[in-house]
Amino acid sequence: MPLYENARLARRNLQILSDGSEVLLHLLHGEAGDTGRKCIHRMHLDRAGIARSDIVYFYDTTVPESVVDADFQVLCKPGMVQVGQLHHTESLFNRMHRSFRNT
Question: Of 20, 26, 41, 46, whose Cβ has the fewest other Cβ atoms within 10 Å?
Answer without folding.
Answer: 20
